[in-house]
Write a structure and sequence with these properties.
The chain is α+β, with helices and mostly antiparallel strands. It contains 3 helices and 4 strands, in the order H-E-E-E-E-H-H. The longest helix has 20 residues.
């Protein structure tokens, strides 16, 4: 379960336009997220969606073998969802 604080941080990152796509292929998107520090998030979509972030929270929890989602990853997933929603509304068909 994702904690409320992670949602709040993710929403703030999006509201402050801190999430940017810096590279995109057919099944992978690399994001730059500027919070207190700059972090990089990779979201891959093959048969399932997978993600990674270089922030300390994500790396520490992943080393512990825990399934984790940090605010940076959540902000990027919401960003992608919003882009897809906007493209469908506008009648376009982009990848992200």
């Amino acid at each position: 379960m994702i904690k409320t604080i992670i949602f709040k941080k993710a929403r703030k990152l999006l509201e402050e336009q801190k999430v940017k796509v810096i590279q995109q292929t057919e099944n992978k998107v690399l994001f730059q997220v500027d919070s207190n520090e700059t972090h990089y998030v990779v979201i891959k979509q093959n048969h399932a969606v997978s993600y990674e972030c270089d922030c300390e929270f994500y790396l520490r929890k992943a080393r512990e073998g825990r399934n984790v989602m940090c605010s940076h990853v959540l902000a990027c997933l919401i960003f992608m969802f919003n882009q897809i929603k906007k493209e469908k509304k506008d009648g376009g068909g982009g990848q992200c």
